[in-house]
Every structure is written in C-alpha cells, then in structure tokens.
Fold this protein.
Amino acid sequence: MAQEERTAYFAALCEQLYNPKSSAEREQAQKMLEYSFPTFAGEAGSGIAQQPAPPGMENSPTFAIVSPTDTASALRVLLESSPNPLVQTFCLSRLKQLILAQFSIFARDTKLQLRTFLLEYCFMHPDLQPFVIAQLAGVVASLTRLGWADMEEYRNVQKDINQFLQASMDHRIVGLQMLAVLVQDINSGTSTAPLRSAQLRKAAAAFRDTQLFDIFQTAFDTLAALLQRNIPFEKPGQEDRLKDAVISVLLKCLSYDFAGTNLDDAGEDIGVVQIPASWRSVFEDETFVPTLFTAYRELQPPLSSKVRGVMECLVLVASVRKALFSGDTERSKFVMNIMQGVRDIIFTWQGMNDTSNYNEFCRLLFRFRATAPLNEMAEKPGYVEWIGLIADFTLKAWAPETTHYLLGFWFRIIQSMTSYSQINEVTVQKLKDITVELTRTYITTNVESVPTRLEEMLDDPLETEESLVDTLGMLGHIARCKYEESSAALVAIFDPIAVQYQELIAQARSGMTSGESFKEALEVIETKFAWLVYIIAAFIGSRPAFLSSEELDAIDGELTTKVLQLMDVNQALQNQHGSAFLNQKLDMAFIYFFMQFRKAYIGETNGKSVYTKLADLFGISDQILMLDVIMRKMYSAVKNLRKIETTRLIMQNHMSSEFAFFESSKHQQNRMLYYQVLCKVLFSEDNNEREFHAFMKPFELRLQPIETLDSVEAFRQDAVRRAVQDIFRDLRGFIQPIQNRRHYLMFFDWFYPDYMPIVLRALEAWSPDPAANTLLKFFSDFVFNRSQRLNFPISSPNSILVFRDTSQVIATYGRHINERQVTNASDKYPILSRCLGGRYINFGVFWLYQDKAIDEAFHMMFQLMLSIPLDDLMGFPKLARAFVTLLDDFTQEQLTALPTLEPSTFLYLMQACELAVESTESFILSHACAAINNICTFVAQETEKNEIRKSINADEGSPTPSSERRRSSSSKQAPATHWLMSYLTQFPNILPSLLVTILNLVLFDDTQDQWALSRPLYVLMLLQKEV
C-alpha cells in the first residue's frame, strides 16, 4: 500500500477532526483515528482486536498494529511523511497519550529512539508552527519525567537543547520555546498522573537541582544580549519571536515549584518564592534586577504580552525569601533596586494603561511588601517620597480588580508600623494620613459604581462574600489607624444616601413614583447601603480588644446605631410590601454586621461605651439586649427563606435530575455548598425530625445498592467509585454547618453504624488513590465536635465505638500509603486531631482495658510522621497545618499518657516543633507554640513535684525506727521517672535550642505573633534559669 495514499487518508481524517463541518463528523473522525492508533489503555486492556471497527473504515489504508510499540512506530511514520500541521498535532497528542498509558512496557531502546527521533525531527524542521513545537516539547517532557529515574540519557536536558541554541537563529528560537514547555510540564507533571506522584516529584526535584539553573542562566544571558543589541538576526520577525521565547523561559523557571508542593498546596498569592541557595549569585548581581526593569521599559507595544511577561517575572523576583542573600548589604541593594524600579514605573506610567499589566504591577507591590519588612524599606533613603508615590498611585488608579493587592500592600505597611520604634514621626504621620484617603477612596469607588454594575450587569463583589470579607478585613485595620477621621469619612457618605432612601420611600407612599421605577431606584440605594453596612461591619470587627478606648468604642456605637436605624426602616418596608422588596445583598450585609459586632463586643468587659448611644435610641444597654436583637435578625432571615415556595420544592426534590451541576465533575464544591444551604434551611425550625427523615430518604435509596457490595473488587468499579464519592461529598456538605447537638445526633443516629461499613470497605479498595480523600474529608467532619455537637449521653458507648472505627480508618489508609510509598497524610491528620481535641472520647478506657485501637492509631500516626523528612515538612503548607494542629491536640494529654515513646520519634516531634515556630504562617507558628507550651508545662509540673519530694525527704530529720519504716514504705511507692523527663536528661540541648530559637524570633524577627511566642517562652525561661 503506497505511503502517499495512507498519508492523504489520515490527513483528511485530521482535517475532519480539527475543522469539522458538524459535531457528528468530528466524532466519527475521532473514533476512526483512535481505532487506527490504539493506546491499549481501555477497560478491556487487550487492544484493538476486541474492538469493532467504526463504520466507514472498510478497506481503509491503515497500519498493522498489535502492540503499543507498533502504535508508536506508526505515529512516527505518519509524522515523518506529512507536513500538514493538523496531522503533526494529532500524531504528537496521540503519542503523548500512548506514553502516559504505556511507558513502563516500552523497551529501553524504544524509549531512547523515540526521544532521539523527536529532538532530531524538531531540529530538521525549525519552521514548525508554534503550537506543533509546544506539542512536541510536551511529548519530550513526558518522556523525560517518566524516564528520569531509569534513563540516564534523559537527565541532561540543557545539553540536548544546546544543539538548537548553537545553530541558526530559527533553531535558537525553537530551542528556547521547547525549554519553556519542558520546564512547565516537568513542574506540573504530578497533576496528570496522581498514581505516579512520588516518582514525578522526585523527577521534578532532580530536574530543579541539576538543570533548571543552567536553563535560567541561559535565558537571562540571552535577554541581556538582546537589550545590548548584540544578537544579529537573519529574517524579519525573529527578534520578536526570540524575545517572546526568552521571557517565557524566564517566567517558567521563576514559577517553578521549588519547594516541591503541588498547585493545590501552593495556590495562595502570599507565599515566598523559595529560590534555591545555588541561585544566589544571580540575585546578588547588581545588574540582575535593573536588567529586568530595563527589559520592561524597552519592550514597548505592540510587545504588550512581553511587557506583561517581564512584569510577572518581576513579581516573582520581588517575592524571594530574605535568607537567599548572603548578607544585609546584598539584600539592601536588592531592595533598593526594586524600589527604584517601582518609582520609575510610577513616574513614567509606562504600561499602566494595559489592564493586565496594571494588575501585575499592583501584585508586584503586594508581593514585595509581603517579603520585605517595613523597617527594611523605611531605612532606605527617599522612603517617605517613595511611599507617597505609592499612595498617589493607589488613589489615582484604583480599580476593582486590584483592590485586594493594593489594600494588602497598605494593610501590611500599617500592620508593621507600630512594631518599629526607629521609624521617625514624619513617616508615621504620613502613613496615618494616607490611611484616611485610602478608606475614603475605597468607600466612594464602590458606592458610586453600584448603578453602573447593576445597569451593565457586571460582576458584583457583594455576590462573592468570601473574597469580599478578606478585603474588608484589611480595610478595617487600615481605617483603625486613624479611626475618627476614617469613620467621619464613612458617615459623610452614609448620611446623604439615608436622606435619599427616606425621600424615595416617602414618594412611593404618596404615589409620586411608579412601581417599576420605585423598585429600580430602591435596588440602587439598598445595594449602596449593602456596601456601607459591610464596611461598617469591617470597621467594628477590626477593633483591637486590648488597645481600644472609650472614645473609639463610642464611635462604634454611633455606627451601630445607623445600621439598626437602617434595618428598622428596611424591615418596615418589607412588612408593607412583602418579600418582593427583599434585597438579599443588604440582608446578608446585616447578618455579617452582627457577626462582626458579636466578635468585637459580645463577651468583652471593656466595651461598655458602645452601648451609650444604643441605650438612648433603642434601649439596648448591654450585651444581653444586643444578643436578643442579633438572634431575632438571624432567625427571621432563615425563616423567610424557608417560606418561599421555590425553597420548599427544592427541599422536597433536592436530588432531582433537573439540577445539571450534579452531572458535572467541575461543580464538586458547588454540590457541597448546595447541601450546606439546604441543611441550614432544614434545621431553621425546631420540630423537624419528620422533615429530616424525609430529606434523607433519597440518600438511603442511593446507599442501598452500595450496601449489598461485599468485595473490594466491586468497590473498584468506576460507577461505584463515582456514586460513593458523590454521596459522601453531599453528606459532608450537609453535616458541615450543623452546630446544634440535637440536630447532629439526629444525623449521627441515621448514619452510624449502619453505613459505616461502606466507608471502611471503600477505603480498603481505593487507598491511597485521591478518590479516598473524599471519604477521609467526610469522616474528618463526621468526628469533628464542632460546638459540642458530639457530646453523647453519659451511658452511651458511641464515643468508644467511633474511635475504634477511626483507628481502623487511619490504619487502613496508612497501611496503603506505606505500601505504595506515598507521602500524603494531610487528610488523615485532621481525623485524629479532631478526635483528640474533641473532648468527647474517654481515652483512659482504651488504656485501662488495653484496647488495641488506640495503639494502632498512634502507631500508624508515628509511622506516617517519620516517613516525612523534616526538611520537607514545611514545604507542604496543607500538610504542615494539619501536622501542627495534630501536634497541639496530641500534646495536651495523650503524649504524656503514653507508656513509652521511641527516642527517634521524640526527637522528631521536638525538632518539628522548633522548625514550625520559625514558619511565616501565623496558624502554623501558633499551634507549634501551643505544643511546646503543653510539653514544657508538663515538664515544669513534674520538676516541681520532684523538688517537693526531695524537700520533704530532706526535712524529715534524724532517723528513728518509725521514720525508717515510713521512708522505706514511701520509697517503694515513689513513682518512676516519666520517660519524657528521662529523654530531656538524655538530650540536654533540646530545651536550650528551643529557647534560643523563640528568643531570636521575639527580638529580631518581623512577626505579629508575639503573644503566641510568649506562652512557650515563659515556661522555657522557667526551665532554663541557668541559661
């Protein structure tokens, strides 16, 4: 059969696949191509022979394929024979699928030949389309990361690409384009193959240690040569393509996952970029930062995408850790260069008219301040002028998209301002003045944008309360810096809108406005009020309990009065017109306001001034009366929702197939949110047991067929896996919001123990596959004693039974983790932590009756702990948070209750505590401090007991027969030395090392967690009096 005929046949199919005339044509072409080039990864697992040929393939010129190696050879032949970009795209994408599915069964020679062929093919065709080059580089990246451990020839990527960089300009551009894709794919490879996550992480780490710096250095040298005009070009357009490729490589290198975390763990936008110490020479080079700012300045439009790329590089460069630099002098030069570059951009306003670039610049300010302490910037010459420029920029160019970044910058500035006595009064006053203008600008901008947002149906921040609350929290702290002026600015905006509100209601009562126009005008005003109520809530919620004054509390009282007056008017309007005039945004704002008021004043003894104005106007003179107002508002909000007919229909048909998001894997979080809301609505009434069982009936129908499955293999079916995941994700969403003990025990009795075997069998079948995480997260919430909802009756055995099942869950999952050598315990730690900290399980019963459940749980906990190298522990933020939470709960009672502990485990725990207190994340630091405090408090108490015993024995005086008998009797009954005390004697450097570490943090570090650090510091100083 002629190769030309076969090539033309497959070219026609690729044309139908990528440029179809209809979806049916595309599906048919896809089936024919997939049949012609099988990956042998289907459920049957035995290849093409058992699959019938799609219609239309009779007598078609296909390849003879019986194995994955044949498929690879056929794709290679087709790729070589066709210059069609669509054919090239299909061949490379199918080849990548084949490699991911069957790499392990390829012979070594096949692996080497395949990678060599791809590199040679690209070298021979430097004119390939950019998307084809990206596809080809992706295939090479897949081969590299999968074969890194076994194929030494794969481990020198830089050398493989050097042949491109040393050839013609087109080859050089292609080489850099390939490097960008290689770095990106090797960095993000774990998400595409979770079962190989450990193998791919090792490959990514080895690539980082041996190849990445050389690639980065090559790209940076090329950029410097470009800016110096030292590179000759052969054709038009080559310069732009080279700039694009160079910036892409730099960005991919700086974005690399240096700490070894995955995207889910490292997704926060406040993190420090963990550049390795081996890169220090580049970052300490005085020309490094200026070169990037020069690149930003010289890459003018139409190169706007390159300008954004350079700005993204600057964001990452500004986020590097302080410890990267060898000394204060080098760090100071680096900070000065960043500040100078920022100043130049603001002066010239270059690139700020491009929205994406402007957003990245705001992000640069945010990340720079997150890694550069205030004193490090304030001591630089020209700081007052520089901070003034940032303030002018903020006020001049405020935009909704950058609110989080700009407020984050100023929040961190203000937060640190009181920590440094060396900041002069001029700087302090300048910063305080700026806060008032920032507050006024934020309020004015959002209130004035309401009509436009409603008219043009733009995204409204009020509809995403989670991100809005983060922003408001920062605004509240900024406003508190000069609170009288900031609150006055708020009132100056609030009062005119209140007048408009009253006039509009008066006009409606007199018939001067029609129903529709009244409703539109009312929506605008009430949405403005929603913004103002949220902002007032942020002001009050940011009250510092120990630094407030009667004058500032009185201001909070006046603001609260305005909110309550507004609420009364709004409630009267609803009573008159019904729920048709209910503004959900304003109603949510009222609820958020009461939450913040409760946080700031309920339970406080020093906030009485807030009630002065409230007592005059509303008769609310203390916390009890205010709580009554809060509860009435909360209750009425949910009750109103339940009365709506649509809500009743949803409650009765909550699993209806008409809810399309149930069928999409992209809406997993939405499913949980859906059941969280339904749970709150269901339990808004007191007498709801009948409604509860009716609501759970659909869950019972879904669980019944799964209950009958009695083998691990049955649970591994895809349909069963999907069904169980969906059910337990829904149930997790349902139980999360339950606070009431009676309501939760209603669910507990429905679920336990009838459906517990499903959890255990599914974990046995799936662990440690990511599918098991859904069950672990559900069980973590199931054993969570939130608001004391799990306090069983005193004679109930449920707490004991629950912990036995908890032990089985932990042992099952941990055993599979150890067998597969997977390091992933972040979903297991919260389960045990919540059992230990829940205070509803009598662990003494397990020790008394020698129940193996507690031994198995702790044994597996220690095994999994020790499997994580200490150097890696802080590199996984989710794991670190789960670890220190467990450590805090475990050290409160159970650590000292253990009959013994291996020395290696004890040393690991103490070293982990010391490492965790140095974390930049407050959550990790505070729990680590609590764990150290728990341990040291026990040691102090034991030390005091021993000293008392010694003192009593010393005071007994001269011996007599009776005293000798007493002493003999007491010596027999004297308790043995606790193993913890013995280890501290055996390892005498542990406590001094902790003391030095915490003292250094308190005295020299830019931390806002002084109180958390003070707890262990006090006990350590008591134990180390001689130091």
In short: The mean pLDDT is 83.
